[in-house]
Amino acid sequence: MQTATATAPSATNNASAAEKKIAVFFYGSFMRREVMARAGYTPDHIEVAKLNGFDIHIDPHANISRSDQHAIYGILVSATHAQLHKLYAMDGVGVFLPEAVLVQTTDGKLQPAMCYIPPARSNQPADREYLERLISVAVEYGFPEWYVARLTRFR
Is-above-0.85 flag for pTM? Predict the structure, then answer.
């Protein structure tokens, strides 16, 4: 009887895993192309998506929390782990933890994605300049009027 022996992953396999792109849902600063570009990241494709079961807070920047009465809008992109590390290591970003979510694209397709969520809210007033840029990008992507109105209530 033959037994299988485990082998250590090769450097080539590790490199290809690091290069693999995963679906990521952005709902705050990283929806802005110029912010992504600061970390050297330009997505191949951007798709508007909705995350049900969460609500958005601006305190002072975008933060989300679970809510069975709300949904948030954002963008769905593909990125490598290295690209995500660069984005979340940028100055001023703060602590965000990755969580697997299921988003819905505008054509109704459900897509598993990674979403980065702060572990706690800061309960500070909204950063007005940040909020205006967030509202602007929400309008640019064509988010529903009710969602843009939701964002404007943080003014």
Answer: yes
